Here is the input.
Amino acid sequence: MHAVPNETLELWVGPAPDRPKTADGQVLEVPDDWSLLPPGDAALTRRVKQAGPSWTIREKRGRKLFSRGVWAPARTIERIRAELASEREDPRHARRLEADRARREAKQQVYAGEFEAAVLAFLRFAPRHAALARQLAAAIAAHAVPVGSGTVARTQRIPVERRAEAATIAWLRHQSTAYDSMKIPRVKGMRREVRRLLAEQSRALLRCYRQGEAVDATQCPLRRALARPEADSALQDDRSTNVQSPARAGAGGAPSSRRRTIEQASKR
Here is the structure.
């Protein structure tokens, strides 16, 4: 173990709070005159990292990455904290914050409209189902667009048209199928296969509405989902699905488990 106080590093949680580790597992010791700045104050964290050497600590849980704070010289942290406190007491700071908030809200409203329009364009329902398409597009946008939703609608890495398509398929998977209550064994490729099958079912349902077919409202999973009060609530994360343990889904039982899961996915 050794310290490298003059370097800015991104590290991982180690065996102790003051002993983080590198990506290759090397454990480092935090310098004696450093302090840990907890996450939560973005402005303070940003300025501390800009001021000089620091160690950003991260922790991965499942597929999520969490910040566990930033180690930096204690004097640097206290100096910048005092500077920020002084700035925040200035009335001009509050006015700037309010102006920034208003700009973000206006931008968000514009994007919400653009995204809902993209969803509506992806649906392409026949004229006889136009009202349903508008209702569905509004429900999908209401769930996917809000800041912090963590959905594909918030990414900038793909065009809005592809975001709209992915968000629609995800909404249908969670709201119109049994996906959230399924027991999916921990077998490699199983969850991907289930999601593919459910996506095919969702696309087949959308084709019925695109072709203008008469659909029994009492039997349509899409209409039933829209009729539920919780249809506009936040969807469950994929990891909240009830999953069997690896032992119960061992290699010997994988084929039969796969068949049972696929059959379950096919049922409403």
